[in-house]
Amino acid sequence: MSRRLMSSVLIAALVALIGGSPVGYAADPIPIGVSVAQTGPVALAGQEQVLGAQIAEEYFNKKGGVNGRPFKLVFQDAGSDEATAINAYQNQINVAKVVAIMGPSLSQQMFAAGPFAVRAKIPVMGPSTTAKGIPQIGEYVSRVSAPVAIVAPNAIKAALDINKSIKRVVVLFAQNDAFSKSETETFQQAVKDLNLELVTVQTFQTTDTDFTAQVTNTLTAKPDLVIISGLQVDGANLVKQLRELSYKGLIVGGNGLNTTNIIPICKMLCDGILVAQAYSPELKSKINDDFKAMYRDRQKKDPPQFSAQAFSGVQVFVEALSALDKKSPLAKMDLAALRMELNKQIMAGAYDTPLGEISFKASPGGEIVQKQSYVAQIKMDQGGTSGKWVYVR
Amino acid sequence: MTRSLLFQQVLNGLAIGSVYAIFALGYTLIFSILRIINFTHGAIFTLGAYATYALTGASFGFNGLLANASLPVRLPFVLALIGGSLFAAVCGVIVERLAFRPLRARGSDPLLTLVSSLGVAVALVNVIQYLFGAEAYSYPADPFGHLPSAVNFGTAAQPILVRTVQVIIFGVSMVVLAVLTVLMNATRTGKALRAVAEDTVTASLLGIDTDRLILLTFVISGFLGGVSGTLVGLSVGIAGPYFGIAFGLKGLAVIVLGGLGDIPGAVVGGLVIGLVEAFVPSQYIAYREAVPFALLFVVLLLRPQGLLGRTIVQKV
User: DSSP assignment of A202-226, as one string?
Assistant: First the structure.
């Protein structure tokens, strides 16, 4: 073949390759990012979120995915600190080019990484970020985790149900964590609203391991109820040391302690901790029954809140993608437009999830509107090595 | 403040302080013989805790390369403690061979040894994280048999409680202090060690096997690191691979406060810092971490050789 013909053929082939390739999301499968705490101390909660997300991937793909197109979850560890979360977000947005991100696990991390999502105009969903101010970060930041202001006071009411003569309350919180600071404001306000006596407020850091001083100050106040807002490792250590130094009253834990993964740390002494729940396995609905069955199949126990929230987060993305695709085919959109339209669709939808029926209120990000909330208590087994949540309210 | 509350705070301070003391003992031993600050002590501390955990037959979590791994043995806690500490001692020796000896052979600046030890510490801790993940672990309950969870130093009406594990840590640190003091002052090996501390070259000229003694120092220091790591892990759980590094930094404040290289000084420094931390008023309790360093600053201004150190007179 002559040189000229050869080069024309090559150029034509190149044009066909580039020009002919689909612009936008006809590429299968659709990538959805998941960036939760897979390493670090918060992995105790992150592990449950990964499970919930994986079950959602299997379940919704089996049901046809996004109008017949499969989706896949792209996992990028957000660690337990802000820098790792920001890094994970950057990777998901620019390298993995996902359509949306679920994560990170901590409110503290969302405050750091959320602004990047707002600038990049990609919808992100906090599966467990319950502090005040999360949806206010920007219109692209939503959450499926009911805010502490709504959920937390229920735990104190449940404590009062158990012991009507509670009068003196001590509150402890981790003052270097945004979520704990937000949650403790709610707890302290609820204590006042219920006409209980807030005897003292003690602070600690999430990195502390020795709480001797705080425990001494707490016990000196002779409380009937102790309320702890912290994360998993510090919270569990604090409970353990309180009990070892003979505190016999009730303990209400915040959302940071809301995982049976704290059991290896406080063991038998975890028994009786009350934590408000945004999810109950007892809720009667088809999706919850399906979710429960799949979870029980893998873990031989009922699903916890963190897993249910992660499942619901993925569900919201998949259903919003399906609804958007029906209005305007995803295959014809480029990634930037897809992300923007998806965000609008997320806010507009209503979803029947294992958490119950939920929708979002623009604040400007999506604040979850959820009807139900519950309270559960840890019940330890005889050996002190395993336990489960027993719903009390 | 009532008398019983005061006594409680004092006991709290001694409890907190004995954790620092037991860490600092191994730390200061190296300094007293070799005049180097061994930052790897924090990593050896962590390794000892993990090794004891493995020897109790427990399994590691799902993260990390060796997910769900466990050893085929299941030793009772005290034996696991000794085994884990021996492992830590061996690691200490390996670190010495790889990180310190080559620098010493070349007559390098002590600062290089310090930086080298910091690098080794970070590397070791990251290896642990890579192999075993970053979850928190804790030892089996009732490791020493059915002891009560707290010891009552007061009366039934006015209880003054200290957690049993903290009493054990205090007891062990006192025993170690006694043993080390006897070793250094009343045995031939101790005398040889002090000779090496004073001048390595002269000691070797006088027929002392300095290499063997330096090895012995690292063995003892590593063993102490393993014991302290395990006991502290028993008290507050193993919070992850980095739980020893935080002690390394505070341990430095402890040994400088007590007098660099002074063995009773390490214990005194630790207890003093613990006592000061226990008396921090309620509203500043979250800033407790700043206290030892503030205290260190003040003491160094007034008494640069530390509380128990001797002034070093430079003879021309």
Answer: EEE-TT----HHHHHHHHHT--SEE
Which residues, 6+ apart, have CB-to-CB distance to A24 below 8 Å? A330, A331, A332, A333, A334, A335, A337, A338
Question: For residue B57, is it left (φ>0), alpha (ψ between -120 and 50) or beta?
Answer: left
Do residue A38 and residue B19 have CB atoms under 8 angstroms apart? no
B-contacting residues in A 216-245 (Cβ below 8 Å): 216-217, 220, 232-233, 236-237, 240-241, 243-245
What is the distance in angstroms between the Cα of A283 and the nearest Cα belonging to chain B?
A: 30
**Cα–Cα distance for residue pair B261/B258, rounded to 1 Å:** 9
ipTM at complex level: 0.81
> Which residue segments constitute the domains of chain B, with CATH numbers given?
3-139+161-302 (1.10.3470)
Which positions in chain A touch B135 (Cβ < 8 Å)? 41, 43-44
Interfacial residues of B (vs A; Cβ cutoff 8 Å): 5, 8-9, 12, 15-16, 19, 62-63, 129, 133-138, 141, 149-150, 159, 161, 163-164, 166, 235-237, 239-240, 243, 246, 277-278, 280, 282-283, 285-286, 288-289
Q: Which residue of A has its CA nearest to B59?
A: A264
**B90-120 confidence digits (pLDDT tens):** 999 999 898 888 888 888 887 888 899 889 9
Question: Half-sphere exposure of B25 toward its Cβ, with a 13 Å CA cutoff?
Answer: 29
Residues whose CB is less than 8 angstroms from the CB of residue A79 and which lie 6 or more positions away in sequence, other chains included: A37, A38, A39, A40, A42, A85, A88
Q: For residue A204, which residues of chain B lie inside 8 Å, CB to CB?
A: 285-286
* Cβ neighbours of residue A242 closer than 8 Å, sequence gap 6 or more: A211, A215, A218, A219, A226, A251
Please tell me which residue of chain B has the smallest CA distance to A221. B5
Q: Which tokens in the block code for residue A150? A: 């709504």
Domain ranges of chain A: 30-146+284-362, 150-277+374-391
Per-residue pLDDT tens digits for A136-163: 999 999 999 998 888 889 999 999 999 9
Amino acid identity for residue B284 in this structure: Y
**pLDDT value at A316 more than 50:** yes
Judge whether A30-146+284-362 and A150-277+374-391 match in fold: yes
The third-level CATH classification (topology) of the domain covering A30-146+284-362 is Rossmann fold (3.40.50)
Give start and end residues of each alpha helix (H) in A300-359. Answer: 305-327, 335-348
* CATH number for the segment(s) A150-277+374-391: 3.40.50.2300
Of residues B163, B48, B182, B116, the one with CA closest to residue A241: B163
Comparing CB atoms, the residue among A43, A214, A237 nearest residue B135 is: A43
Q: Which of A12-16, A381-385, B86-90, B272-276 has the lowest mean pLDDT?
A: A12-16
- Cα dihedral sign, A358-A359-A361-A362: positive
Q: Listing from the earlier edge strand, what are the strands of the sheet with A250-253?
A: A197-204, A168-174, A225-229, A250-253, A274-277, A374-380, A387-391
Which residue in this structure is represented by tokens 């403790």? A184
Residue B171's CB: how many other CB atoms inside 10 A? 11
Whether residue B127 is predicted with pLDDT greater than 60 in this model: the reply is: yes
Q: Which helix (H) or strand (E) holds A130?
A: none
pTM of the prediction?
A: 0.81
